[in-house]
Structure prediction request, 290 residues.
Amino acid sequence: MSAQIINGKEIVSSYRAEIKEEVQSLAAQGIQPGLAVIIVGEDPASLVYVRNKAKACEEAGMYSEVHRLPENTTEAELLRLIRQLNGNPRIHGILVQSPLPKHISEERVVEEIAVEKDVDCFHPVNVGNVTIGKDAPLPCTPAGVIQILKKINVPIAGKHAVVVGRSNIVGKPMALLLLREHATVTVCHSRTPNMEEITRQADILVAAVGKAKLIKKHHVKPGAVVIDVGINRLETGKLAGDVDFDDVLETAGYVTPVPGCVGPMTITMLLRNTLEAAKRSAQAQPAVKA
Ligand code: NAD
Prediction:
């Protein structure tokens, strides 16, 4: 039997339609959610991601501004811009596109973003809150993966989920969100021996490695749900995931395509988090008397 290819386009467009409706009803109260995206340098892939984020904001009826800074921007200059955006009432979410140039500390930058405007859940306070199950914006890529599983009605509770990759951006928070959904979670990484023995036990297998086509059919249990977070540029110029899509097709139960599923879902979660941040900021404003 051949795997079902998860229809990312359909999931993303129905989710974004819901967000757009909520943005419109917020607009009726005079509030427009606003996202600021900062990019330092000229990394071509990052420029594409930033453009896609700004476009998605506009399509959803949100306000967006992109700050393109030169490669030689100092850390102090970047921190100053973040402080300005922290104090700007039009902006509800701030995202600093990674990677940053080597002379700028990502850790320092993330800590400067106001906790309530940290819409990608990078700030240590938000990471801590998510870890202990308190209310916080959920990290966009892992939250997108959970939404994909929910949209295709895959049960998560009690299932064995294996995450390949342990980065702070994807692997670790992915494991955490799967735990919050009551999965039994195993994390594999670059020092895991005989990885296929573990991945073959997965009902849900999430690959977040950054190595094109690493996951083959011998890593996959028959019928498993395979979610591919990886985005890798091949020598041919084409994009490929961390999963060898054609190879796993006969074994997996479901598989996500790359591009066109986790990537756009990540942006959708960014819109969702910005919208929620705008709602919270509206609630925090003192009521104006007529
Ligand atoms: P990273 O380099 O920070 O982390 C990679 C992880 O993979 C590490 O924890 C490492 O231990 C593990 N790893 C490396 N080689 C391995 C191997 N041979 N076997 C098992 N584990 C191995 O990368 P990241 O930021 O987590 O990103 C991972 C991938 O996801 C990249 O392709 C990235 O472009 C992509 N990504 C996609 C989105 C999206 O929106 N779709 C978002 C973020 C990252």
